[in-house]
Amino acid sequence: MTDHPPVERTAAARRRWGACLGLALAVLAPGAARAAGPVLVRAPWFRYLLASIPAGGYLTLENTGAAPAVLTGAESPACGTLMLHRSETAGGTDRMVGVKQITIPGHGQFRFAPGGYHLMCMQPKMHPGQAVPVTLRFADGSRLTVRFAVRGANGAPAPGGTMPSGMGPSGMGPSGMGPSGTGPGGTGPKMRM
Amino acid sequence: MVTITRGGRNDRIPDGRAGRRGLGRSAVALALTAALAGAAAAPAQAAAWHNIDVRGSVPPLAFDMTDAATGKPVTATDFRGRIVLLYFGYTNCPDVCPLTLHNITVILQRLGKSADDVRVLFVTVDPHRDSLPVLRAYTALFAPQIVGLRPDANQLARLARRYRLAYSVSPATGSHPYEVTHSAAVYVFDRTGAGRLLIPSLASTTPDLAGTTADLRRLLRASGERGWFDRLVRRF
Question: pTM for the full model?
Answer without folding.
Answer: 0.71
